[in-house]
């Protein structure tokens, strides 16, 4: 017997709730054709696993197992989930500008559309399971950060822009410096060199003042990492 429960209260996301004191990992499985196959494992400290490589408007079935050094537990009860009709903003509605956007909450969707990453693996394996590299953040507000950044990688966020000018803050930890570029609906709005902050977890806020914006709904904010050498936590329009 085990004490695992799996449910979804949001399309594309699975929340694991558990009461299990002796296991070290959870294994997540998805039903495929005629049997369950493993999607991967999550540390017991993580309460959320997200499966994002899905087709829209389709049903998927999941279950979880606990694992410790002795092996796997019995599986939890299977739970079915319907996905949204198509890829969408992370929270289902556009992020608001002014406002703060966590870097890890880029849109759901395909590589070369809502993100570009130099490979197809989330190397640290946290929070989401497409190609973008996401790891736990040691900044004061914790959460997650984008790491393992390579030149030319980018992320896209659907936004509603409600102002014509904003100060833009970028939360950055930089070992080697770098360069970052912002575009709104394909038009460059800002670009800045990033100075070293003292390390991969030495977080500082970089401000770009009086950036001109064109208001409108469902605009695409694209953040391109022109030159690598830093980790990225959040962006704030104020
Ligand atoms: Ca990657
Ligand atoms: Ca973050």
Assign the structural class, choosing from mainly alpha, mainly beta, alpha/beta, alpha+beta, or little secondary structure.
mainly beta
Output the CATH topology of the largest domain.
Jelly Rolls
The number of helical segments is 0
- The ordered string of helix (H) and strand (E) elements is EEEEEEEEEEEEEEEEEEEE
Q: What is the count of β-strands?
A: 20
Biggest sheet, in brief? Answer: 6 strands, mixed
Radius of gyration: 19 Å
Q: Mean pLDDT, rounded to whole units?
A: 87
Overall number of domains:
2
**Ligand names:** calcium ion
Ranges with pLDDT <50 over ≥5 residues?
Answer: none
Sum up the overall morphology in one term: globular
End-to-end Cα distance: 51 Å
Walk me through this protein's architecture.
The chain is mainly beta and 238 residues long. It folds into 2 domains: 79 residues, Immunoglobulin-like (Sandwich), CATH 2.60.40.10; 143 residues, Galactose-binding domain-like (Jelly Rolls), CATH 2.60.120. It contains no helices and 20 strands. The strands form 5 sheets. Strands 9, 11, 14, 16, 17 and 19 form a 6-stranded mixed beta sheet that branches. Strands 3, 4, 6, 7 and 8 form a 5-stranded antiparallel beta sheet that branches. The model has no long low-confidence stretch (mean pLDDT 87). The site of one calcium ion has 9 residues, from strand 13 and strand 20.
């Amino acid at each position: 017997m085990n004490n695992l429960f799996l449910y979804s209260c949001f399309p594309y996301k699975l929340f694991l709730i558990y009461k299990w004191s002796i296991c070290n990992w959870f294994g997540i499985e998805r039903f495929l054709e005629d049997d369950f196959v493993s999607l991967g494992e999550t540390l017991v400290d993580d309460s959320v696993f997200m499966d994002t490589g899905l087709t829209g408007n389709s049903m998927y079935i999941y279950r979880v197992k606990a694992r410790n050094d002795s092996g796997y537990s019995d599986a939890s009860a299977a739970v079915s989930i319907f996905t949204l009709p198509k890829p969408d903003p992370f929270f289902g509605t556009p992020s608001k500008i002014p406002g703060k956007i966590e870097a890890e909450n880029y849109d759901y969707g395909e590589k070369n559309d809502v993100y570009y990453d130099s490979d197809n693996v989330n190397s640290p394996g946290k929070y989401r399971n497409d190609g973008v590299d996401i790891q736990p953040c040691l900044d004061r507000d914790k959460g997650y950060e984008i790491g393992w950044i390579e030149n030319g990688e980018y992320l896209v966020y659907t936004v509603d822009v409600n102002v014509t000018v904003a100060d833009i803050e970028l939360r950055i930890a930089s070992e080697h410096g770098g360069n970052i570029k912002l575009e709104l609906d394909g038009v460059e709005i800002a670009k800045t060199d990033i100075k070293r902050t003292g390390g991969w977890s030495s977080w500082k806020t970089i401000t770009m003042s009086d950036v001109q914006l064109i208001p409108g709904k469902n605009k695409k904010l694209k953040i391109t990492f022109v030159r690598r050498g830093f980790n990225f936590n959040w962006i704030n329009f104020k």
